[in-house]
Amino acid sequence: MNVLDFIRKNADWCWLLTLEHIWIVALSVFLATLIAVPVGIAITRNEEIAKKVINTANILMTIPSIALFGIMLPILALVGHGLGKVPAVIALVLYSQLPIIRNTYIAIKNVPPELVDAGRGLGMSNWKRLKEIEIPLAVPVIIAGLRTAVVMSIGIAAIAAYIGAGGLGVLIQQGIMRVYEEMIVSGAILVALLAIFVDAAMALLENLVTPKGIKIGRKLGQ
Length: 222
Description:
Blueprint: H1 3-9, H2 11-42, H3 47-62, H4 65-77, H5 85-109, H6 113-121, H7 126-159, H8 169-178, H9 181-209, H10 212-221
């Protein structure tokens, strides 16, 4: 049996695992966004704090996923969630912080100062300038950070199958346990295809939310 035969004969199972994988990643990145975007905006007001926050997020990224799951296991076991989707989601939320915080910070900092000054001259409050000038111009770069976080999370979520989180990593995990090459390769291919598809969708979204003025500026810059 080759890989295509395996996927075709187990289409329903593969589809359920794909949906489970998408759910884990979507929930994780959604929660990460609720945390990271406000943090990224807040640290633009203080360079010293910004360095510490970004360095902390960098440190989190250096921890191998298996090691992070191992660290969380005894802690979350105290509340009955040492294994399963809870530690997987927490890990993905932590790993997603760096690309989202960094892109949000860079995006807000790179808003042309003349536009901010113009808003200030019109009597806009800090909140109004942020809402009507800075965030709309920063959105494409923030989306780029989300794009990185989502694609990265799809890969890490596959490893989370080893702690009972489910998803497409189950195919790889069980395939290794059974020495079943077709199952292993099928899982790897489906994870890769999901990442490619989501990356393309996020790239399209990034393009759609980019203001026309920025697109024209990029073309002129070329």
